[in-house]
Amino acid sequence: MGFVLAATYDRPNCSGIACPFTFPALELKANSGDVFVWPPDATPPNVTYNASGGYFVFLSDYFVPLQEFYLKVSGRAGFNVSGKLTIFPRREFREIEATYINGTLQVGDALYRRNIRGILVENGTRIREMAVYDDPATYKEFKYCTEHYEEIVKACRASGSPEYQLPLGLGLMLAGIALFAYGMKF
Q1: Which residues cross the membrane (predicted)?
Q2: Is 54 left (phi over 0), alpha (psi -120 to 50) or beta?
Q3: 55 - beta bridge partners?
Q4: Distance of alpha carbon 46 from alpha carbon 63, whole angstroms
């Protein structure tokens, strides 16, 4: 019995689990005032950073032409949906989260069936943080993986043999050998 337990012990290799990483097409970081644009040859937005208020001010209209996207914005901004998703200045602070894929734009709980050409941020809009990803499926996979990483690793480890199986098998084998040797003496 101990030999069977030791021989069938299977420890899964969970060391290779990694979340796919995705770069945003546009990112504004309020804590540092950094602007990140991908690809590097893309035109960056014309913004100024107000360090005391912790927000970016768009000094001109900025258009991001994308076929599909995931967008997360926080700031004094509202949105309008026409042939593009327009982010415009507002007095109230709000967070906007939008996903556009396969002709469907989802902003919060609202769904819009429209052909969207991209995202337009209007002149004067104040943004605290903004991230735009040009591949929403990859971003959502990355987000899910990072949020549930510990659960994924735990499930991987549970897919193999229990941790106690190998020591139990070896212990039973030694006990069997000891009993056999003891029985051979008498």
Answers
A1: 164-184
A2: left
A3: 50
A4: 11
**What pLDDT, on the 0 to 100 scale, is given for residue 41?**
67
Q: Are residues 76 and 160 in the same domain?
A: no
pTM: 0.71
Cis peptide before 39 (omega within 30 of 0): yes
Q: 101 and 126: one domain?
A: yes
Q: Which domain holds residue 48?
A: 26-144
Length of the chain in residues, anyone?
Answer: 186
Picking from 154, 165, 149, 157, the residue whose alpha carbon sits closest to that of residue 12 is 157
> 11-62: per-residue pLDDT in tens?
667 777 778 788 888 899 877 777 888 766 678 899 998 888 889 999 999 9
Per-residue pLDDT, 131: 92
Same-domain check for residues 58 and 98: yes
In this structure, the answer to whether residues 40 and 87 fall within a common structural domain is yes
Distances (CA, A) of 125 to 44, 75, 80, 167, 174: 16, 8, 13, 64, 74
E strand intervals along the chain: 26-29, 34-37, 47-50, 55-58, 62-65, 69-81, 85-101, 104-107, 110-113, 118-121, 126-133
